[in-house]
């Protein structure tokens, strides 16, 4: 990351509530082509989430504790606050002196922008202002939220406006919390009903919906210079496995999440080693 920070724009997309098994299945079946073409080897990496629900997981992520590979570590981190005795800070880690890498990037001259999704980013109650408050600029409106069938395309339109309004020389760190996978998601599957509710199938349909629009986000973020992108889930969710429904609980389908990192080439085709 020491070669990336300062030379690249940065994009972090959390596909809120996305399960690893559903993400891996859709990639293998060719149902998410716009995401799959950027996944290293065409597959998601299987990782463990740092928390079992949005608030906890994002607090950890912004402190540099991204989802970790689902094998024994320690695993070197991309970002880390300076901390004596840290076993996950390595030569390639971008080390900073702030408690979160969002404020550290701002100190390096990045415009830090949050496009919120689920309720922890809606800036309505005080708790909904904590995470977006880390950013220099934050955006949320009801059309970005969990109840909107067009949430992600609305979020992408906002991101496009953000990028278009920046001076070309200004570096950008854009964070997008995608709400479409979170319940309710039944409306993304044709023929599903509110009465029948959400299911693993409607969850998958929501990911297909996101895939149809994510190419616009990638295009916007790579239109000025190369962009280092992280796309991952913050936690999964249960649809009846072992009697569990939802998340904020310790089940395999909640803790296991998809993860990918890659470089989006800039407008001249320039890439860099990530």
From TrEMBL:
Ranges that cross the membrane: none
Keyword Hydrolase in record: yes
SUPFAM superfamilies membership: Alkaline phosphatase-like
Organism, as annotated: Streptomyces litmocidini
Xref: NCBIfam families: fam_STM4013
Top-level taxonomic group: Bacteria
Protein name: STM4013/SEN3800 family hydrolase
Keywords: Hydrolase
GO molecular function: hydrolase activity
Keyword Disulfide bond: no
Sulfatase N-terminal domain sequence ranges: 10-251
């Amino acid at each position: 990351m020491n070669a990336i920070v300062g030379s690249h724009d940065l994009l972090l997309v959390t596909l809120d509530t996305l399960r690893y098994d559903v993400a891996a299945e859709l990639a293998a079946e060719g149902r998410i082509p716009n995401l799959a073409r950027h996944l290293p080897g065409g597959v998601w990496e299987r990782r463990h989430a740092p928390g079992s629900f949005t608030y906890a997981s994002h607090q950890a992520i912004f402190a540099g504790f991204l989802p970790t590979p689902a094998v024994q570590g320690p695993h070197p981190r991309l970002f880390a606050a300076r901390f004596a005795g840290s076993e996950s800070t390595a030569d390639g880690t971008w080390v900073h002196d702030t408690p979160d890498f969002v404020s550290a990037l701002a100190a390096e001259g990045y415009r830090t922008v949050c496009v919120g999704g689920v309720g922890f980013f809606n800036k309505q109650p005080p708790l909904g202002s904590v995470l977006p408050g880390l950013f220099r600029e934050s955006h949320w409106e009801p059309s970005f939220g969990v109840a909107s069938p067009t949430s992600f395309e609305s979020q992408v339109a906002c991101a496009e406006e953000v990028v278009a309004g920046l001076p070309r020389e200004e570096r950008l760190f854009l964070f997008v919390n995608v709400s479409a996978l979170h319940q309710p998601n039944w409306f993304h599957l044709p023929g599903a009903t509110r009465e029948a509710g959400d299911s693993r199938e409607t969850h998958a349909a929501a990911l297909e919906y996101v895939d149809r629009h994510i190419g616009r986000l990638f295009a916007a973020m790579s239109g000025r210079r190369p962009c280092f992108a992280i796309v991952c889930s913050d936690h999964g969710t249960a649809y009846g496995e072992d009697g569990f429904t939802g998340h904020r609980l310790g089940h395999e389908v909640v803790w296991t999440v998809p993860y990918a990192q890659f470089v989006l080439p800039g407008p001249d085709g320039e890439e860099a080693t990530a």
